Amino acid sequence: MNADEIKIGSLLNNFLKKNNLEKGLDKVDAKDAWFKIMENGVSNYTTDVHLKNKTLYVSLSSSTLREELSYGKEKIINLLNTALEKEAITKIILR
């Protein structure tokens, strides 16, 4: 990384914070991370994913899958936050 890349990154971060755009990006990033981490097995049964106030709401079309995922919520939260490189998610609600 050179000095120009650091300056541009810093400028973008400042712009996002100043204009209160981080939450919107977190919403998009959280949805992308869900589909990336869960891959085809779970994502095929995922009908909706959205983030609100650090809570990730996931709608699933399979009640059996919803039950199975409910046992691993903490692990899923950790995987998603690792992928997002910040603690954007503190709770998951499976519907």
Can you give a write-up of this model?
With 95 residues, this protein is α+β, with helices and mostly antiparallel strands. It has a single domain, classed as GMP Synthetase, Chain A, domain 3 (2-Layer Sandwich), CATH 3.30.300. The chain contains four helices and three strands. It has a three-stranded mixed β-sheet, with helices on one face. Strand 1 and strand 2 (55-60) form a beta hairpin. Helix 2 (22-43) packs across helix 4. The chain is elongated and about 50 Å long. 11% of the residues are buried.
The low-pLDDT segments are: none
Q: What overall geometry do the principal axes of the alpha carbons give?
A: elongated
Largest sheet: 3 strands, mixed
User: What oligomeric state best describes the polypeptide chains here?
Assistant: single chain
How far is it from the N-terminal to the C-terminal residue, by CA?
43 Å
Taking strands numbered 1, 2, ... along the chain, how are they ordered across the largest sheet?
A: 1-2-3
Which bin fits the share of residues in helices? 55-70%
What name does CATH use for the topology? Answer: GMP Synthetase, Chain A, domain 3
* Total of helices: 4
Task: Return the CATH class.
Answer: Alpha Beta
Overall pLDDT: 90
**Overall SS class:** alpha+beta
Q: What string, H for helix and E for strand, traces the elements in order?
A: HHEEHHE
Rg calc? 16 Å
CATH architecture: 2-Layer Sandwich
Tell me the domain tally: 1
Percent in strands: 15-25%
Beta strand count: 3
